[in-house]
Each structure stands twice: as structure tokens, then as C-alpha cells.
Amino acid sequence: MPTAKLVFVVDDNPSMLRGIGRLLRACGFASRLFETGGALLRHGSFDSAVCLILDINLSDGSGIELRHRLADQGIEIPVIYITGNDNPATRMAATASGCVAYLTKPFTANSLIQPIERLLAGVA
Fold first, then answer.
1. Which terminus of the chain, N or C, has fewer Cβ atoms within 10 Å?
2. Which residues contact 30 (CB under 8 A, 6 or more apart)?
3. What contacts 33, CB < 8 A, 6 or more positions away?
């Protein structure tokens, strides 16, 4: 069972990572921040998070590939993708991997918070 309002965030841009962490905190969410996909994988404890906010282009690989690795390990966690490099192929691959939202940077605070709130309400 997820810990109430804990969100994992993976983004290799430190300022984006801190900004999302501040936004989540201001909206009443706890967050665990990771600069790489590898750091997320080493952390484990995926059952404690409500969802994963995942940058698609990470310094240590593709966020979409990371999502597939998690699924291959039997880890099912709702994913919100964020990207600064939107294109139809990436959008299609992200959607096919089973995300609850796909956001293009810069995105509004509300567009990030709404999918998380829907997950908590059980309507995502």
C-alpha cells in the first residue's frame, strides 16, 4: 500500500528536480527525488509511492526504457512522464508504456498535480 501522498521524481536537471519537489510539498505531497534512473532502481521500496514522475531523457538512459525495466521486474507504479523534447514517436512510446499523463516542459503546476490527485481518488 502506498504511503500517503509520497511521489517519486526522477529528473537529471537539478533545478527542475528541486522545483518539482517544492511544488509537490506546497500541494501537500511528500517526495523522494532522484537525479538518475539508476538511483531510483537502487532505492527500491516502490510500494511506498503513489506514483513516479519520470523525465524521458535522463543522463543514464531513457525514462521509457526505465519504465519497461520496472515492469519487467514486476514493479507496477503509475507513471507521469515529463519531457522537454516532445515528438510524435516519443509521445506514442510513452503512451504505449502505460503512463497516466504525458507533460511537455514547461508545464503548469495544475497539469502535474491533477493526475496525482486523480490517482489518490482512485479515478486514474
1. N
2. 3, 5, 6, 7, 24
3. 9, 17, 18, 20, 21
Q: Is the peptide bond before 78 cis (omega within 30 degrees of 0)?
A: no
Q: What tens digit of pLDDT does each residue of 92-116 get?
A: 999 999 999 999 999 999 999 999 9
C-alpha distance from residue 124 to each of 21, 58, 89, 98, 100 (Å): 22, 26, 24, 12, 7
Kindly state the cell numbers that stand for 33: 527525488
More confident residue, 48 or 35: 35
Distance CA 86, CA 8 (A): 22
90/49 Cα distance (integer angstroms): 25
Q: Report the DSSP beta bridge partners of residue 8.
A: 32, 52
Q: Is the overall model pTM greater than 0.85, yes or no?
A: yes
Q: Where are the beta strands (DSSP E) in 40-118?
A: 51-55, 57-58, 61-62, 79-83, 101-104
DSSP character string of 1-47: -PPTTEEEEE-S-HHHHHHHHHHHHHTT-EEEEESSHHHHHHH--GG
Based on C-alpha coordinates, what's the Rg of the chain?
13
